[in-house]
Amino acid sequence: MFNKRIKIKELLAQEPAGQTVTVMGWVRSFRNNQFIALNDGSTNNNLQVVASLGKFEEELLKRITTSASLKVTGTVDASLGKGQKMDLNAISIEVLGDCDAEKYPLQLKNRPTLEYLREKAHLRFRTNTFGSVFRVRHALAFAVHKFFNEKGFVYMHTPIITASDAEGAGETFRVTTLPLDGTAPKNEDGSINFKEDFFGRTTNLTVSGQLEGELGATAFGDIYTFGPTFRAENSNTARHLAEFWMIEPEMAFYDLEDNMNLAEEFIKYIIRHAMEHNREDLEFLAQRLADEEKQLPQDKRSELGLIEKLEFVLNNNFERITYTEAIDILRESNYNKKKKFQYEITGWGMDLQSEHERYLVEKHFKKPVILSNYPKEIKAFYMRQNEDGKTVAAMDILAPGIGEIVGGSQREERLDKLEQRMAEMHIPAEELWWYLDTRRFGTVPHAGFGLGFERMVQFVTGMTNIRDVIAFPRTPGSAEF
Length: 481
Description:
Elements: H1 8-12, E1 20-31, E2 35-39, E3 47-50, H2 58-62, E4 69-78, E5 86-97, H3 114-118, H4 128-150, E6 154-155, E7 161-162, E8 174-175, E9 203-205, H5 210-220, E10 222-230, E11 243-252, H6 256-277, H7 279-293, H8 306-315, E12 319-322, H9 323-335, H10 354-365, E13 369-375, E14 391-399, E15 403-410, H11 415-424, H12 433-440, E16 446-452, H13 453-461
Parallel strand pairs: 3-5, 6-10, 12-13
Antiparallel strand pairs: 1-2, 1-4, 2-3, 4-5, 7-9, 8-9, 10-11, 11-16, 13-14, 14-15, 15-16
């Protein structure tokens, strides 16, 4: 059969035994018209294929260029050269796909920049860096499902097209079939008549599956979602994407403390899975990051290497403090001139910036931090109001090098309190009648959190730009491929 082949990663893990095998992959290099470095994407390590001199026709050898794809059958033997323990001595070589080496845009030996590779996102997977990043991304995604499955959660697919808005800015990405040339049907006041649209109302791409997830939690107890979400922040930064993936568990009969415990356990679980199953990739990325940081001034370098940072998260309990305590710590740090912030600490009620979050994690506590009980004015309408009347049962998890990585809360299960808060924030109750029904018919305390998957991948891989941890980044002015 055509696909009767062995993966190079699997083959390299074996001892040379003289067996005959078939491998398929892409040429990384071809030297001395004899030694082919072949890679199939299962590992960064290449398999050395030996095309013995005089055994293959010159026309075939000319077609073996960088990134050409080959099918090779040969015998596995211990290598006589340095740098590899085995060679595949070719019996037959078939070129499956030619590559014009002169026009091929990725000359890997020149180590193209990450900025250049973003312009070649359709090919960048073939580099060692992105091979490692996306194998780690796969491992983390697999671990997400494994974690929740082991805990008995139900996986829910919530809508990508929605008429509800969980956190504001939900109307940015409109979904419509109406013409854009000014001929769309109008109401008497001149506004667009969306009753004539495909769904009979205004719809948009979702910013969160949380509200729908809560419906599932009030029936199944524990659910989680894992799907794409869309938010438009018109800034070309290393932290933002317009399309990204969110993991959002919702748990009935959970309070804020239960929520924090689960989130910490979850983060440690998926990091541990990647450390156990993708150590080789993480060590490659750690070395890459270390090489980059050698070019930076000493005060700009990370105190911990990538592997040390991940082990530090696994081996420490997350520090837990309230928002009020965090403000006091930040005020004191500013007062003592320990740290000058770009954004001034104006006092209780302000929204913390990334630099404030990272100070708490990296300088003050030197460990991940869970902040809780935020002022209600800076949080969403659905968060449970605390008895003090000023704060809500919200929590954020802050990680070194990146700041906020998880946001969550205990949800407001009391109908009167929820309706009151919606009125204060001008959230139309008539549009969320279905959400309010869960408070009318068998309401229970419940909680949940959201983890931006790309933020997590960025944290685990050490990549400095979030566009380098998603296959095809969608950003302002860019929707290539």
